[in-house]
UniProtKB/TrEMBL annotation:
This is Aconitate hydratase. Belongs to the PrpD family. SUPFAM superfamilies: 2-methylcitrate dehydratase PrpD (SSF103378). One of its GO terms (biological process) is tricarboxylic acid cycle. It catalyses: (2S,3S)-2-methylcitrate = 2-methyl-cis-aconitate + H2O; citrate = D-threo-isocitrate. GO terms for molecular function: 2-methylcitrate dehydratase activity; aconitate hydratase activity. The keyword Lyase applies. Monomer. Pfam families: MmgE_PrpD_C (PF19305), MmgE_PrpD_N (PF03972). NCBIfam families: PrpD_hiGCgrampos. InterPro entries: 2-Methylcitrate_Dehydratase, MmgE/PrpD_sf, MmgE/PrpD_sf_1, MmgE/PrpD_sf_2, MmgE_PrpD, MmgE_PrpD_C, MmgE_PrpD_N. Keywords: Lyase, Tricarboxylic acid cycle.
Length: 500
């Protein structure tokens, strides 16, 4: 890996295009290096994972709204929309499928200086791949680039510190991945990356306070923007530049300011793209920092016994967990039994309480209004707080994957004065966890989520196709579309009439 120092440059300064971060990413995107077998296999796992969470979310209102928007743009020779027949404009297929993937907060993650869900790249690349008649190998190459760019930007540039939403790394990664898949020239990819970044920087309010369905839409929007940016760049249109380093650019005015410096690692020429191998998926439908606490609560449940006997619970954890999903956020909504699902899945206090009482976590039942409003849960929930522990923060940011941690230490004090303590560094499904996810677990997650949603024969057809992704010929990516049962689609809620 080559470490690139990125910082603001004055307009009067001589700063050749070849030094721009967007150009260096574009250079990496056109590198013809082969995708390692392990990376290609993990790409297949993540396509399966995205299909699983899309099946689980397909009848929910935000997903239904996005799907119905896409259906207003039918296009012969276009792209598939999850669950339905027909083909549609690729940017709108990317939009609809991106919302389906993101709605339940249930797919892959990467956490470093910032955080991300790299699987958000897949809908945009698959939609465009279907439109242009790409092959399975083309898609693999594109996704290897997209994952690599997003992982490397997340390693080097913290957006959250400046309250910029994490999809600001997604626009550039999707644009770069599309460039690789389509075999575009460096200059075209460079311009597309600049456009995509310029148009996908927004504040973190989408994940703060009373969280709305835009939490699911934001990554889908970034994917849609990336598709449109690549389309414009292919037609010869340009972007603001240098987009990161400009005197009025992203670093100077949205991030650390004119004096800030960031170090972004990127593979050198001929160096394989392995970034996807450092990412991990979710066993539970909840914000990633809740994954280990859910498993910890399940493990502690028998020792605790009757939760009515609990006096207090303190979760000692990292700065990020404390301030984003813990009491450090200062969000009273995180203790509101009538809060939205999106808010509840960003409340580790609620999540720990339910997991401790139920010994399980369900992507629907655990968030049901009647579950959130249960009197004994509300009482327990109010007794839970988080505190930042410097050691957990250090481990959260550690570059050593063997000590990197996203968990917590739980200190449960009972009314009789007894104290029960335990800790868990990583979720059970993490590569270093008790039950790491491999192909068997990805397929198992898909079949569980698809049960009663997708016909069994259709499930088998899809799994056979995606398993042999590398051999899918040009024009054959439609095999990755999935048809949902009619009665499931009919159960989707009515939505308001829009303009389109």
């Amino acid at each position: 890996m080559i470490n690139h120092e990125v910082y603001t440059r004055r307009s009067s300064e001589t700063f050749p295009k070849q030094g721009h971060l967007a150009y260096k990413i574009a250079q990496m995107a056109v590198d013809p290096v082969e995708v390692p077998t392990e990376s290609a296999e993990m790409i297949i796992n993540r396509i399966i994972d995205n299909a699983a969470v899309s099946a689980a979310s397909v009848a929910r209102r935000p997903v239904t709204s996005a799907r119905r928007q896409a259906q207003t743009r039918p296009l012969t020779g276009g792209s598939g929309v999850f669950g339905i027949d027909g083909t549609y404009a690729p940017e709108w297929a990317a939009w609809a499928n991106g919302v389906a993937v993101r709605e339940l907060d249930f797919h892959d993650t990467f956490l470093a200086a910032d955080y991300s869900h790299p699987g958000d790249n897949i809908p945009a690349l698959l939609a465009v791949g279907q439109r242009v008649g790409a092959s399975g190998r083309d898609l693999i190459r594109g996704l290897a680039t997209a994952y690599e760019v997003q992982v490397d930007l997340v390693r080097g540039i913290c957006l959250h510190e400046h309250k910029i939403d994490h999809v600001a790394h997604l626009g550039p990664s999707a644009a770069a991945g599309l460039g690789t898949m389509l075999g575009l020239e460096i200059e075209t990819i460079y311009q597309a990356i600049g456009q995509a970044l310029h148009l996908t920087t927004a504040t973190r309010q989408s994940r703060k306070g009373e969280i709305s369905s835009w939490k699911a839409y934001a990554p889908a929007y970034a994917g849609k923007v990336a598709v449109e940016a690549v389309d414009r760049a292919m037609r010869g249109e340009g972007a603001p530049s240098p987009i990161w380093e400009g005197e009025d650019g992203v670093i100077a005015w949205l991030l650390g300011g004119p004096k800030a410096r960031y170090t972004v690692p990127l593979p050198g020429p001929g160096e394989a793209k392995r970034g996807i191998l450092d990412t991990y998926t979710k066993e539970h439908s909840a914000e990633y920092q809740s994954q280990a606490p859910i498993d910890l609560a399940r493990r502690m449940r028998e020792r605790v016994g009757d939760t009515a006997e609990i006096e207090s619970i303190v979760l000692h954890t990292s700065h990020h967990t404390h301030y984003v999903i813990g009491t450090g956020s200062g969000d009273p909504q995180k203790f509101d039994p009538k809060a939205s699902r999106e808010t509840l899945d960003h409340s580790v206090m609620y999540i720990f309480a339910v997991a401790l009482q139920d010994g399980d976590w369900d992507h629907e039942l655990s968030y049901a209004p009647e579950r959130a409003g249960r009197a004994d849960t509300v009482e327990l929930w109010q007794k839970i707080s988080t505190v930042e522990d410097p050691e957990w923060t250090r481990r959260y940011h550690s570059a050593d994957p063997k000590e990197k941690a996203f968990g917590a230490r739980a200190v449960i004090t009972l009314k009789n004065g007894d104290v029960i303590e335990d800790e868990l560094a990583v979720a059970d499904a993490h590569p270093l966890g008790a039950r790491p996810f491999a192909r068997e677990q990805y397929v198992g997650k898909f079949t569980r989520m698809a049960d009663g949603v997708i016909d069994g024969a259709e499930q088998e057809r899809f799994l056979a196709a995606v398993t042999d992704l590398a051999t899918i010929p040009a024009g054959g990516l439609d095999a990755l579309n999935l048809r949902v049962l009619d009665d499931v689609l009919a159960s989707a809620p009515a939505t308001g009439e829009g303009i389109l």
